[in-house]
Amino acid sequence: MTNDLITRLESILSEATTELENVQDLETLERWRLTYLGRSAPVADVLKGLGSLPAEERRPTGQRANEVKQTLESVLEARRESLKSSEWERALELDRVDVTLPGRPTGLGGLHPTTLILQQISEIFTGMGYQIVEGPEVERDYYNFEALNIPPDHPARDMWDTFYISPPEVLLRTHTSPMQVRTMEQAGGQPVRVIVPGRCYRYEAQDASHEWMFYQVEGLAVAEGLTMADLKGTLGAFVRQLFGRDLQIRFRCDYFPFVEPGVDMSISCHVCGGSGCRVCKGGGWIEIMGAGMVHPRVLEMAGYDPDRYSGFAFGMGPERIAMIKYGIPDIRLFYGNDLRFLQQFN
Predict the structure, then answer these.
(1) How far apart are the C-alpha atoms of 152 and 306, rounded to whole Å?
(2) What is the DSSP pairing of strand 285-294 with strand 164-166?
(3) CA angle at residue 135 from 146 to 314, to 5 degrees?
(4) CA pair distance 54, 283, nearest whole angstrom
(5) Cα–Cα distance for residue pair 5/43, rounded to 1 Å
(6) Quick one: angle between helices 113-127 and 318-326, nearest 10?
(7) What is the phi/psi pair of residue 292, to 5°?
(8) pLDDT tens for the 346 residues of the chain, in order
(9) Please, which residues have CB within 8 angstroms of residue 82's CB and are 6 or more apart in sequence?
(10) Could you give the residue numbers annotated as active site?
(11) Cβ distance 267 to 247 under 8 Å?
(12) Helices 2-21 and 26-37: crossing angle, nearest 10°?
C-alpha cells in the first residue's frame, strides 16, 4: 500500500510540474493551484487517508506527501513571480515612450468670434478718432430710460423687456445707450466722440436671432454743426472698412425715443451685390443698425445747449454683424460652447 501511494504522489508531482510549464498567465495559474493544491487536490486526498494506513506506513507516506506539497507550493510561487515579471515587462513595452520623438504640440486657444468682431469695430472707429468707453452693466433707471427721453409712463418702455434687480430703480441695462448720458455729463459740455461696447440684457425668448444676453456697440458724436450728412459719411466709411468693399447704404425712417429723426441703416447685400439672394432674402438689402440725431431733450438733460450743439448716435449688435459677415445662421452658436464652431475663427 505504501509503495502504491508514494508512486501516486510521484505521478501527481510529475503531472503537475509538466502542466505548470505550459501555464502562461496568472488566471490559468490560479486554476492550476486549485487543481493541485486545493482542498480537493490529489495530495490532500492522500493526507486525509493517512489515518487508515498501518502505523508503520503512515510516517514515510505522510513525509513524502508533505514533500510533494511543499515542492508544488515552491514551483507555484516561482512560476507566479515569473509571470508577474513577464506581464510587467509587457506593460512597460506597451507604455514605452521614445524620448527622442518630437513632442506633441499643445493646442492653442483663439479669440471668440464676438471678441474678434468687437476688435474690428473698435479699430475702425478709433481710426476715425473715437474713444472707447465702458459703463456699468447694473444700471440706474434714470440713465437707462429717463435721461434718454423715456419717462416712467412712456409707452416706449414696452420696447425693452427689462430685468429689474431692485424695482423700480436698479436694473440690468437693456442697451449701452446709458453711457451716452454718462459720457456727456463727464464731458461738461465739451464735444465728445465715443463708442461704447458692452453686454446688455433683455428678457426675450431665445431663437435664431435673439438671446437674453447679447453685445451692443453704441456710438455717439456731439459737437457744433453736426448733421445727418456727418452720420451718413461716418457709417458709410465704417461699412466700407468692415466689409472691405464699397457697399451702398440706405436710411429709412424709424423710431427711437432718444434720437430725432431716427433711422434704420441697411447695406446692399455683400453676397449678391443687391440683386437678391438667400442671405438678403431676395430684397437686396440687409439691416445692420439703428441711428439718428441725438434728441434735443437728451442733450439738454446732459448739460448741453441744443441750440448750439447737435450730435448723432448709432447702435449695432456685433453678433449680428458677425452673422452677416461670416454667414452664421443662428445667434445661439455664439454661446453654445461648441468647439467645432469656435475653432473656425482661430
Answers:
(1) 23
(2) unpaired
(3) 70
(4) 114
(5) 10
(6) 100
(7) 160, 180
(8) 456 777 777 888 788 888 888 888 888 888 888 887 887 777 777 776 666 666 666 677 777 777 878 888 888 888 888 888 888 888 777 877 777 888 788 878 889 999 999 999 999 999 999 999 999 999 999 999 999 999 888 887 877 788 999 988 999 999 999 999 999 999 999 999 999 999 999 887 766 667 788 899 999 999 999 999 999 999 999 999 998 878 889 999 999 999 999 999 999 887 777 788 877 788 889 899 999 999 999 999 999 999 999 999 999 999 989 988 888 888 888 988 898 998 888 7
(9) none
(10) 160, 175, 202, 216, 259, 313
(11) yes
(12) 180
| Distance in angstroms (rounded) separating the CA atoms of residues 222 and 181 | 11
The maximal CA–CA distance of the chain, rounded, in angstroms, is 134
Which three three-digit cell numbers place residue 227?
448733421
**Which element (helix H / strand E) includes 294?**
strand 285-294
User: Could you report how far apart the first and last alpha carbons of the chain are, in Å?
Assistant: 88
Asked if 308 and 223 touch (Cβ cutoff 8 Å), the reply is no
Give one DSSP letter per residue of 261-282, joined into a string: EEEEEEEE-TTTTTS--TTTTT
Residue 340 is placed in which grid cell?
Answer: 467645432
User: From the centroid of its chain, how far is CA 94?
Assistant: 35
**Helix orientation angle between 2-21 and 55-94, rounded to the nearest 10 degrees:** 0
The number of beta carbons lying within 10 Å of the beta carbon of residue 325 is 17
3 state DSSP class of 338: coil
Q: Cis link prior to 178 (omega < 30° from 0)?
A: no
C-alpha cell at 157: 418702455
Q: Domain 114-345: give its CATH code.
A: 3.30.930.10
pTM (global) more than 0.85: no
- Residue written as cell 486554476? 31
